[in-house]
Structure formats: structure tokens, C-alpha cells
Design brief:
76 residues, mainly alpha, two-stranded antiparallel ribbon, 4 helices
Amino acid sequence: MATPPATAALRGELPDRYLTPRDVATLFNVPLETVYHWRKKRIGPPGFRVGVHVRYDPAAVQRWAQEQTAADSDAA
């Protein structure tokens, strides 16, 4: 069975396309509304608009996840 693109991104295998908000929600196993909340509050991975659609660069999402991990480790 093939690894879904969003899950593969966490493992370092970046997909060759930009991620949708749904992909990001799947990647972090959070509700889609959480991803939209992160974007609204500017606390989540950086995204950008393509017309009316929001997209995320897989490399930027991976960096954001690493930063969150490092910040969490520093707080402990």
C-alpha cells in the first residue's frame, strides 16, 4: 500500500506538489478547522493563496513541524 503524500512529507519524502489544507490536517491528524484556525491566527505552517485556494509548500510545513518539536523540547 502506498504512503499518502501528506504522511510521506513527515517522513522526509516530500511530495512533488503543494499541499492543501486537507493534506496538512491529515499530516498532523487534526481537524481541518484547526488548520484554518492556525492560518487565521498565523501560528501554523506558512501558507499562500493561489486565487481562492490556500496551498502549503511541503518543505515549509516540514520546517514548521521541526521548529515546533524543537520549541517543545526546549520548554520541557
